[in-house]
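User:
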Amino acid sequence: MKCSRQKLRRDRLKVGLHHYNLLLRAVRDCSIGPPDVAEKVLLGEEPQPQRTLAPLSLGPDVELIPSPESVPAARKVPASLIPTSAPDRLAYLGGIHGLLNEMKRCSLTPDTKTLSILVRCLGSSQEMENALVQLAIDRNYPLDTDFFNQLISRRNRRKDFLGAALAYDQLKERQLKPNMMTFGVVAMGCTTRQQGRLLLDEMTQLDIDANVQVLGALCYQASRRRLFRYLKDICIYMERTNIEPNAKILDYIEDALSAAKKDIVEMERMSFRARPAEKYESLRTRYNEFNEFYSKWLSEVQRKQESG
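Assistant: Predicted structure:
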């Protein structure tokens, strides 16, 4: 912030919103720079160009060079205090409140781009994300669908499925219109059959057909948990809406079948007493039912591909 102000003041430029957006991009994407320059900035010193000191000759037998004892000891910044991540760099700008208060002092209001970049600088802290959302609401800053898409995606990627669902609720509470990207990031957190069905039903009510990205995200969650009835729902949906599965979806399904078959074989190798009977029978029944359905479904998919 200090370097930016000095640069703007020196060039006699008025601070604008685009300057803050560029500053946040630097916070998000750039390191702090060479360690020696970074230390000077953090200590409040003005970085100087590097100069090579040549010996000063007073004659053939006398030379004056800087003595180590005559040079003041350089102040050092502990390595732990040098920012190495976007949240660290944002903290050096005063954090969320410090940065937004500075913008307010300059009579600037962040736009959707500012807030979208800012949320990417927060690391994995839901507390900080909630603080940003609440501050934006309190100050009437613009929060759009793309902002909440990012929030939902970030939380689902770190397996904070409840937090992602709460962000989706906030989007709807603000009466923002979800787009296909919204449904794609929400699908990343649909870990149960009921959640997947509710999402597809909601899209149907809005007269929107899911695309392969949304279905792929649902299929991933269903396959890694071997929820074969969930996978069957997805296959039936694709058949009903004439959506052709891509290779990734088929791989997810094949992986689930392979993993289930491996577990069944391992349990069959156990002694009768050691085998978990209920788990074995349940898995074998679900596997057989889905495998039979999947074979017919895949044959129909291949037939349509050949004829079309």
